[in-house]
Amino acid sequence: xxxxxxxxxxxxxxxxxxxxxFNLTTDELxxxxxxxxxxxASFNAEMTKQGYNVISCDxxxxxxxxxxxxxxxxxxxxxxNGVKANLxxxxxxxxxxxxHLGEVRMTAMEKFLTDFNSGRKEGRYLPHGLPVLPFxxxxxxxxxxxHFLFTYxxxxxxxxxxxxxxxxxxxxxxxxxxxxxxxxxxxxxxxQLVIDKLAMQGYxxxxxxxxxxxxxxxxxMLKVSPPK
Length: 228
Fold this sequence. Notes:
The structure is a single chain. By secondary structure, this protein is an alpha/beta fold. The protein contains seven helices and seven strands, in the order ααβαβααββαβαββ. The chain has one domain (5-225): Rossmann fold, CATH 3.40.50. 38% of the residues lie in helices and 14% in strands. The protein has a seven-stranded mixed beta sheet with strand order 3-2-1-4-5-7-6, sandwiched between helices. α3 crosses α5. The longest helix is centred in the middle third of the chain and has 24 residues, at 98-121.
């Protein structure tokens, strides 16, 4: 295992945020869903509680709940302080302050941590990372990827993005990626390059407006379907 926990900044979103980020309908929640790079989001825990099916994968799941909890505590203040230093980069509506943001994120991450041990035993949390996944072709109806691809443009180069999206399209019938901004709040310079190259290879791609916006301008997702 090459991942080191000290290189990870855990920051989890909630079920309600996932629904808005990915424009998930009630019928779509009933599908067989894969959450790629899920991290400490509460999406899996809340979906499972409601009787839906989802598998989350992330290399951070190699670590124990206590180790992840400690890493959250170690990095929490730095993340919130970073937001405080860049207030103008965010839309303060449903989340109304950096302190409120911290409360929302910690609530989601606590739900994840409470669910993690049982979810790992049940095979709902798997320690696998892009761009190689251990699933069968079209095993899932829908693959979601939140705050990973396009977010870390400087760390994850064009080749990684292309390989990751192709792999998600191999294991699922449709892929949705959110947001399309990099961590600095600008549209990822890789976005159009990736769209153009995948379109040339027969993939169907569409940028869609969503109901969620916290990063200013971060209200779009990319939908990708594999070649027919």
